[in-house]
Amino acid sequence: MARIRKGDEVLVRAGADAGKRGRVLRVLPGADRAVVEGVNFIHKHLRKSPKSPQGGRVRREASVHLSKLMIIDPSTDKPTRVGSKVEGGTKVRVARRSGTVLDTTAKARGDKRAKAEG
Fold first, then answer.
1. Mean pLDDT value across the chain
2. Which domains does the chain have, with CATH numbers?
3. Mapping DSSP to helix (H, G, I), strand (E, B) and coil, where does residue 47 land?
C-alpha cells in the first residue's frame, strides 16, 4: 500500500525546495516519485506545432522522489510518518503523530474502483 497518494498534502524535506508544502498531483509508483503542486519547477521546451505555433518554453512541475516527502497530519498541521491498520475490514493509512485516519472514503478520494461499484 502506498504511503503517499494523489491529493495528499505533503512537505518537501530535502533538496532545493525543502520546506515547501503542496498537494500531490500524480504518483509514479514504478519510479518511487510524485509530482507536487508548486514544487520542483522545470522549463519544458516546445517545438513549433499547430498547438503552439511559436514554440517556446513552458514552466511545469517535475517529479520528486517519495523519500523527500512527508505527509501533513490534518489534525496537527505538522509532518508525520504514516502507518496502517485494519478498520472495519479495510486497511487504512494512519498518521503516526496523532493517530488520525488519513484515508477518506474511496468515493471522496476519487478511486476508480469506487466509481465502478457505485
1. 85
2. 1-72 (2.30.30.30), 80-118 (no CATH)
3. coil
